[in-house]
Amino acid sequence: MKKTISCRAATVALAALCLFFIVFEISVSSTSRFLKYAATTTTTYSANTQEEGNHEKTKLIDQPNSHPSEYLQLPVKRRIICDRTDVRYDLCSINGPTVLDPHTFTFFTMGSAQPPQVEKVQPYPRKFEGFIMPHIRNLTLTSGPQSPPCKVRHSVPALVFSAGGYTGNFFHDFNDGFIPLFITVNTIFPDQEIVIVVSEAPNWWPSKYADLLAMFTKYPIIILKNATTTHCFPSATIGLISHGFMTINETLLPNPKSFMDFRVLLEKAYGPKAQPKFLTSKPTRSRPRLVLVNREMAHGRVIMNQKQLIRLIKKVGFELIVFNPKRMTPLHESYALLNSSHAMIGVHGAALTHSFFLRPGSVFVQVVPIGIEWGAYAFFGRMARSLDLEYSEYKIGVNESSLADKYGKENLLVKDPFALQKTGWPPEVMNIYLKEQNVKLDLERFKSCLKKAYTKATRFMEKNG
């Protein structure tokens, strides 16, 4: 009897020992995987931190993530699939017939026998930004209950996005709108027809951008708030793909496209309507035309000695046109001006997005106020180089910034903006550099920059007219 008990005890002990080693192995394996992941994450973050310096959060957002189309092209097991892995956007796909009810902002799958599924998505590529996203309306995608009857039938897929948020700021119209639209169409719908569905947009938006929207679709644009009946599509993609601030990453596109391809699109949209009569004069053979972007009515970053600057520009030898774009300035007029000019100069701001209209090889000088160095390159410098422009930056000194008078030259936000911004780019700091700061150019120092621009612009004019 004692032998039997002893034998059983030994068996139990052996089983317990085996169980311990199994649990230990699982624990070690899981911990190993976690530590490997943590190390990878830490390494990536550290590399980004060392490489980019300040604006950590913003700059991390500017890095391209893995290509979303691979996820959306996986074998379809569900009618609705969403990729929420990117820091900038969510991208959802309805793989099969769908009915859109504009009254409830809901897409219903048709004829689905699968269990009910509901997804919510905000189709605006600034997911990382806590301030603006609460103002973007959610769309509902559902496989149940039964869809409403279809009233208007479309034979091509729908691409759905929001033109809300910061729309109305010319930079954001392109950074958050047309560049992601270009990327998405060339990623998911290359050489395919689509219907564009806009979940929200200002009343002026469809007419202002009608020529450009026509480059993406031959079908009428559907604005949900104006729609009164249901529409059905063979499939739908909800959301736009963004590669980062003013970025088109060719390596993430199935058929590589670049900013040069995007500019060709702009030329097709606005070139035919570009009328020389808009211009005040034809450029003379001896003088290249320079466009000075005016910010006199803007909130911040105004050139306080602009009258003296204008005299200097003319003295250097340029024919000068002061460009003061308004929200409803027809884009074919802006295109006509910039596309026929040889140089453009302006202080960092949304209007510099018009540099898209400059011909490759033209001169583009961005005046960079203190504290905005990284944004200046990320928003316009990188794009300018991709467009093959003769790009340069004039970084103002402390004495050229109005902040020196307001806060004192020894104040950290004037003396060392980099140190101040190490903790991030909160609104209160951003507003100081973007809205409180004006510029009084050191004209003797800036004259050297102008002379270099004149030499390059003259060379470009002699070669290209």
From TrEMBL:
Signal peptide: none
Domain Glycosyltransferase 61 catalytic: 261-365
Domain of life: Eukaryota
Protein name, per record: Glycosyltransferase 61 catalytic domain-containing protein
Alphabetical keyword list: Glycoprotein, Glycosyltransferase, Transferase
Organism name: Malus baccata (Siberian crab apple)
GO molecular function: pentosyltransferase activity
GO annotation, cellular component aspect: Golgi membrane
Localization, UniProt: Golgi apparatus membrane
Keyword Kinase found: no
Major site of localization recorded for this protein: Golgi
Stretches that traverse the bilayer: none
UniProt topology in membrane: Single-pass type II membrane protein
